[in-house]
């Protein structure tokens, strides 16, 4: 009977001692820990580094590779802004002496100078006609207004602008651009006074522009 118990103990010891490979354990499978530090267990003679586990020798286990955090997606580029600005366009047409008709050359000049109004929101247009100092004042006032009206009709029809947005004024010989000597009507005087025979166009408008976002 005694021998059987001894044999039983002899068999039980190896079974419990190696319940955790590489470390000594008790009959309950608990490791025999060192008092040196937590996780330091008593190793068996056959211990190998690969026997380290979370309970015993966790500090010897290979460190898990850090999970790479994907780089955040770049923020989308801000959309450009559409802004509306107040703007002014101006044009000028020079008239032949004693004439009020808009010639093709004068119309082409106006188109070059006023091309920006095609895509604009027109607020109002002011058209002012002038004459030179030759001829009676009353006649010149009428002629200057007729010049302004003819330019207004061209702009109204060519640019499809409502007539109620166009204002015309006749100023006669007022505000001369040049001064020329002599009072007698001669070809030289008519040529000298040519810059005074004009129609000016001033357009008050709003334009839409696309600008980069800040």
Automatic annotation (TrEMBL):
Give the domain of life: Bacteria
Q: State where it is primarily located.
A: membrane
Question: What CDD domains does this protein's entry cite?
Answer: OmpA_C-like
Q: Which InterPro entries match?
A: Bact_OuterMem_StrucFunc (IPR050330), OMP_bac (IPR006664), OmpA-like (IPR006665), OmpA-like_sf (IPR036737)
Residues in a coiled coil are none
**UniProt keyword list:** Cell outer membrane, Membrane, Signal
The record's annotation in Gene3D superfamilies points to: OmpA-like domain
Q: Which PROSITE patterns match?
A: OMPA_2
| Signal sequence range | 1-19
**Domain OmpA-like span(s) in chain numbering:** 82-207
Pull one GO CC term from this UniProt entry. cell outer membrane
Give the subcellular location.
Cell outer membrane
Do the record's keywords include S-adenosyl-L-methionine? Answer: no
| SUPFAM superfamilies the UniProt entry points to | OmpA-like (SSF103088)
**PANTHER family from the xrefs?**
LIPOPROTEIN YIAD-RELATED (PTHR30329:SF21), STATOR ELEMENT OF FLAGELLAR MOTOR COMPLEX (PTHR30329)
Q: Which protein is depicted?
A: OmpA-like domain-containing protein
Give the organism, scientific name.
Acidihalobacter ferrooxydans
The record lists the lineage as: Bacteria, Pseudomonadati, Pseudomonadota, Gammaproteobacteria, Chromatiales
């Amino acid at each position: 009977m005694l021998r059987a118990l001894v044999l039983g103990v002899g068999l039980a010891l190896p079974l419990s001692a190696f319940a955790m490979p590489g470390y000594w354990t008790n009959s309950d499978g608990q490791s025999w820990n060192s008092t040196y530090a937590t996780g330091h267990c008593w190793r068996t003679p056959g211990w190998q580094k690969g026997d380290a586990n979370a309970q015993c020798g966790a500090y010897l286990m290979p460190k898990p590779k850090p999970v790479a955090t994907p780089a955040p997606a770049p923020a989308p580029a801000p959309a450009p802004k559409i802004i509306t600005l107040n703007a002014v366009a101006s044009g000028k047409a020079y008239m032949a002496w004693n004439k009020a008709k808009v010639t093709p050359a004068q119309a082409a000049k106006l188109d070059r100078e006023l091309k920006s109004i095609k895509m604009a929101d027109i607020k109002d247009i002011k058209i002012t006609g002038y004459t030179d100092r030759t001829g009676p004042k009353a006649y010149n006032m009428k002629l200057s207004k007729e010049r302004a009206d003819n330019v207004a009709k061209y702009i109204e029809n060519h640019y499809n602008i409502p007539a109620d947005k166009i204002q015309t004024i006749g100023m006669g010989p007022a505000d001369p651009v040049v001064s020329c000597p002599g009072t007698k009507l001669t070809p030289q005087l008519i040529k000298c006074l040519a810059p005074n025979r004009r129609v000016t166009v001033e357009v008050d408008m709003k334009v839409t522009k696309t600008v980069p976002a800040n």
